[in-house]
Amino acid sequence: MLKVITLLADIMADSNHLSANVNVVICFQEYGGRVHRFLQEYGLLETAWKPKSIGKSLALPFNEQINKKDIEKALHLAFDFEIQIDCIELEKSETSNNPHARLNRVIIAWLSNRRILENERDKYLSDLPKKWQLLGDFVVLPETAFTSDSWSSLFGQIASADLLAFWQEVSHALGGVRLARQHPIAKDTHRTSQTELLLGENGWVEFLDHGIQFGFDATKVMFSSGNVTERRRIGMIDMKGEVVVDAYAGVGYYTLHMALRSKAKHIHACEINSDSISGLSWAQEANGLEDSITIHPGDNQETLPKLYGIADRCHLGLLPTSEAVWKHSIHCLKPKGGWLHIHMNVHKNNLEEWTSKTLEMLKKYAKSHGRDWQIKAAHLERVKWFSPHVWHVVLDVECKEHI
User: Fold this and answer.
1) CATH no. for 225-401
2) Whole-structure pTM value
3) CA dihedral 217, 219, 222, 228 (to 10 degrees)
4) How far is C-alpha 282 from the geometric centre of its chain's CA atoms?
5) Quick check: helix, strand or coil at residue 52?
6) Which of 10, 69, 151, 400: CA 20 to 30 A from 303?
7) Measured in whole angstroms, how far is the alpha carbon of residue 34 from the centre of its chain?
8) At CB < 8 A and 24+ separation, what contacts does 323-328 make?
9) 177-231: per-residue pLDDT in tens?
10) Residue 44 backbone phi and psi in degrees, to 5
């Protein structure tokens, strides 16, 4: 009898194991954020297990149903740094700290209360969002979240009060108090946000990003959390004593990092969207940068020419292309030259060709301005996938006089 009890105890212990050998992607800690987002965006991340630090490296668990060779091939195509696939022991995630699991439980309970049979739930559960933004207490869902025919039909059958209660459940499961759903960014010069408010009275958010205070109305302007690694990188560049022109400042995505973390002497922030300017002005005061940032409202085709010849560095952070201000940026640099940080969406097969053509175009603009500079690509940063075959990249270009 004692052997039976012992055996049962062992079985119960195994069924509730807190650790196990799990398939993982291993990369250096500094690249962990990029790999984590890649796995998450493509539904490859296994959230049931905790990532693990191993010296200077980070192990991230991936779905055991994914073939190891396939994921290794995809990662090597996506990244140019060292990545390994292994199987190591990881600890189980705390259920309470796993928003994906919390959302799944909340939706199952809600469907059950509405007498949706278990065999009918898959069509609803398969449509749950796999990613979202959390800005302070404000959750922004992707535009496809809860918009399938099945969800639309179900929402059409319930009272508005019940729908509001549903959105409250979703928001709380994802760690927020207010909730919105992203719509496509308007194709206008202001890149106007068309976010739909689902829960809450307004979209004003305040939060910290690398210790910097941001504030803006998330229903009126766009904020890309996915660019966090580039904001971190740009803030690590030493800009002490430099004057910087930011051609597309927005709410200060990069302006604030260059001012506070890179220690730029002064930044001229160009922005056309009045709602973005409101956020940038708020952050300027909140971070004590009134004397470090000058905001230039209006179309940068008109404001940049007023800044010719003053800059040590120009930041051109517009997607899908910033080409409209390349010539202006060359003119904004001081006669001795400086740096350009050019954002662009580029097909993965065209990176070298695009870099070469970009440098040739910049040399042409410099020559037309009477500047015989040596212009070279110092670094090409792959920020994230914009679409399955298109990279969001940043080209760091050094311009200097021939010696």
Assistant:
1) 3.40.50.150
2) 0.73
3) 70
4) 22
5) strand
6) 400
7) 9
8) 323/361, 325/247, 325/300, 325/301, 326/358, 326/361, 326/362, 326/365, 327/365, 328/247, 328/300, 328/301, 328/304
9) 899 998 866 555 545 557 899 999 899 999 888 889 999 999 998 887 778 889 9
10) -100, -15
